[in-house]
Amino acid sequence: MAHPDLNIRFHEPLAPRTSFELGGSAEALVEVSAVADLGEVLEWAVDSNRSVRVLGGGTNVVIADEGVAGLVIVPALRGIDIDRSGDGAVVVAAAGETWDDVVAETVSEGLMGLECLSGIPGTVGATPIQNVGAYGVETSDVVEWVEVFDREAGGVTRLSPAECSFGYRTSWFRRHPDRSIVTRVAFMLRATGRPVIRYTELEQVVGVGDPPPDVMVVREAVMALRQGKGMVLETGAPRSAGSFFVNPIVDAQTLAAVEAAAGDENAVPRYPAGEFYFKIPAAWLIEHAGFDRGFRQGAVGVSEHHALALVHHGGGRTQDLLNLAVSIRERVEQRFGIGLRPEPIFWGFASSDPLNGAG
Ligand code: NAP
Question: Is the pTM of this model over 0.85?
Answer without folding.
Answer: yes
